[in-house]
Design brief:
rod-shaped; mainly alpha
């Protein structure tokens, strides 16, 4: 029986075709994707760059959000501090106004008591002549002026306290003004005039 040379020859040609076809066949999609994701490939470098950009953008956004939140918290703390300082300042001004009203009431009380006290000596002083009469009249006018000044100053302070808090904060005080300053001195002058009338009787 002869060697099947033709068959061996056909088989060799087939193996050669298979070997040559495996080398020259076009790459499939799976091969291309595997090649793109291989370490050091250009496609993987672009993907890493894109991912790094996304991560950096996300970190920047989170940082900006935290910065804005911290700024808002700082502004809120500052506004609360300013509000507390303003409330304390207004409370101190109100207390000063209450003390001023108390002082003016005391001055008015002293003026009324002094005027009423001089009424006991009125008959003796008026009978003493023109000089004591003039001194007593001047003293009474000064005491009544002190009383009026004290009442006017009290109304001014009370009006300042009743006004809006902004007006008190703007002026920075609840002073009684010139009437509040003059009231005690008018009391002193009135008592001095009455004292002079007593001395010259």
């Amino acid at each position: 029986m002869g060697v099947p040379w033709l068959r061996i020859f056909d088989m060799l040609i087939g193996v050669h075709d298979i070997a040559r076809g495996g080398r020259s066949r076009p790459p499939t999609a799976a091969d291309a994707e595997t090649q793109q994701l291989a370490p050091g490939s250009r496609a993987l470098g672009h993907l890493e760059t894109r991912l790094a950009g996304v991560v950096v953008a996300a970190l920047k956004e989170a940082f900006d959000r935290d910065t804005r939140r911290l700024e808002l918290e700082r502004e809120q703390v500052e506004s609360e501090r300013l509000r507390a300082e303003r409330t304390l300042r207004l409370e101190l001004l109100r207390q000063a106004g209450e003390r001023e009203i108390g002082r003016l009431r005391l001055v008015a009380g002293v003026a009324v008591a002094s005027w009423l006290g001089t009424l006991f000596f009125a008959t003796r002083l008026v009978a003493g002549g023109a000089g004591p009469k003039a001194a007593v009249a001047g003293g009474w006018l000064l005491l009544i002026g002190a009383l009026a000044a004290a009442f006017l100053a009290q109304s001014r302070v009370a009006q300042a306290l009743d006004n809006s808090d902004d007006s008190i904060a703007r002026t920075g005080a609840v002073a009684s003004g010139l009437p509040g300053t003059l009231a005690p001195w008018l009391v002193v002058a009135g008592l001095a005039a009455i004292g002079v009338a007593i001395l010259i009787v």
